[in-house]
C-alpha cells in the first residue's frame, strides 16, 4: 500500500487490534498521568500501536489520528448504548429497536466500564497553605518575645536603681575641740555600721538578678524553640504546596493531551 496516501476508513482487523491493545493498556484510556506513567509514556504507547495498525492493510494514520479514532469509537458506542437503554425503558409500546451492539462495541463498553470503576479513587486532599496565618504567627511570636525582653529590662533597671540607693557609710566629723586634747583622743566608734537591713537588701538584689538572668535564658530558649517549630511548619507547608502545583501541572498536561 502507498504510505503517502492516507485512508480514514479502518478495517475490522484494525479496529479489533486497537481495542485489544487498549484493553491491555487501560492507562491510555483513563488519560491520567503520574510519576510511573507520564505524558511521554502515553505518547510512546500510541506511537507503538500506530506502527502496528499502519502495518495492517487498511487506514494509514499518525498516532494522534489513531487516538482520535479510539475516542470516536468510544463516543459513538456510548451514545448507541444510551439510545438502546432509552428505548427499552420507554412505555410508548412502539416496535422493538433494530439497534444492537456489535462484538467490538461490547468490548469497548467493557473496557470503559473497567477503567471507570478502577479510576474512582478517593481524591487526595489538596494542600492549602495560608500565608496570612503564617505571617500572623511570626508577628505574634516576635511581639511576645519583644514584650518579655522589655519586661526583663524594666526589672533590671528597677533593681539597678534600688542597688544605687544605699545608706551613707561616711564617717562623722570629729569636733575640733576634741582634737585639741590628744589624751582625750580615743578610737572613733562613731563610724556608721552597715545595717543588717542593707545587707539583706543587697542579698535580695543579687538573688533577683540571678532570677532575671535565668528568665532571660528561658525566654531565649522558648523563642528559638518556637522559631524552629514555625520554620518547620513553613517548610512542610511549602513542600505540600509544591506537590499541589505539580498535580495541577499534571492535570493541565492531561487536558492538553486529551484535546490535542
UniProtKB/TrEMBL annotation:
InterPro entries noted in UniProt: Myb_DNA-bind_5 (IPR028002)
Biased composition (Polar residues): 161-172, 181-192
Record field: compositional bias (Basic and acidic residues): 77-86
Record keywords, A-Z: Transcription, Transcription regulation
Recorded GO CC terms: nucleus
Superkingdom of this protein's organism: Eukaryota
Annotated Pfam families: Myb_DNA-bind_5 (PF13873)
Myb/SANT-like DNA-binding domain ranges (all copies): 10-81
Region named Disordered: 77-101, 161-196
Function: Involved in transvection phenomena (= synapsis-dependent gene expression), where the synaptic pairing of chromosomes carrying genes with which zeste interacts influences the expression of these genes. Zeste binds to DNA and stimulates transcription from a nearby promoter.
The protein's assembly and partners: Self-associates forming complexes of several hundred monomers.
Protein name: Regulatory protein zeste
Species whose genome carries this gene: Brassicogethes aeneus
Amino acid at each position: 500500500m502507498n504510505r503517502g496516501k492516507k485512508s480514514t476508513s479502518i478495517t475490522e482487523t484494525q479496529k479489533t487490534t486497537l481495542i485489544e491493545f487498549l484493553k491491555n493498556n487501560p492507562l491510555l484510556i483513563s488519560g491520567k498521568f503520574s510519576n510511573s506513567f507520564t505524558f511521554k509514556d502515553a505518547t510512546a504507547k500510541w506511537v507503538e500501536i500506530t506502527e502496528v495498525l499502519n502495518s495492517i492493510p487498511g487506514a494509514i494514520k499518525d498516532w494522534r489520528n489513531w487516538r482520535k479514532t479510539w475516542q470516536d469509537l468510544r463516543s459513538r458506542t456510548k451514545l448507541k448504548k444510551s439510545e438502546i437503554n432509552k428505548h427499552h425503558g420507554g412505555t410508548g409500546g412502539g416496535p422493538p429497536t433494530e439497534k444492537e451492539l456489535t462484538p467490538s462495541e461490547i468490548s469497548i463498553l467493557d473496557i470503559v466500564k473497567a477503567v471507570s470503576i478502577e479510576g474512582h479513587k478517593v481524591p487526595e486532599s489538596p494542600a492549602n497553605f495560608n500565608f496570612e496565618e503564617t505571617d500572623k504567627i511570626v508577628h505574634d511570636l516576635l511581639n511576645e518575645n519583644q514584650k518579655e525582653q522589655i519586661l526583663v529590662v524594666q526589672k533590671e533597671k528597677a533593681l539597678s536603681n534600688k542597688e544605687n540607693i544605699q545608706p551613707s557609710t561616711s564617717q562623722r566629723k570629729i569636733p575640733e575641740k576634741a582634737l585639741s586634747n590628744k589624751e582625750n583622743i580615743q578610737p572613733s566608734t562613731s563610724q556608721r555600721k552597715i545595717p543588717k537591713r542593707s545587707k539583706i537588701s543587697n542579698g535580695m538584689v543579687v538573688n533577683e538578678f540571678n532570677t532575671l538572668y535565668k528568665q532571660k535564658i528561658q525566654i531565649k530558649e522558648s523563642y528559638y524553640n518556637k522559631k524552629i517549630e514555625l520554620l518547620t511548619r513553613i517548610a512542610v507547608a511549602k513542600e505540600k504546596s509544591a506537590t499541589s502545583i505539580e498535580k495541577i501541572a499534571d492535570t493541565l498536561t492531561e487536558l492538553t493531551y486529551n484535546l490535542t
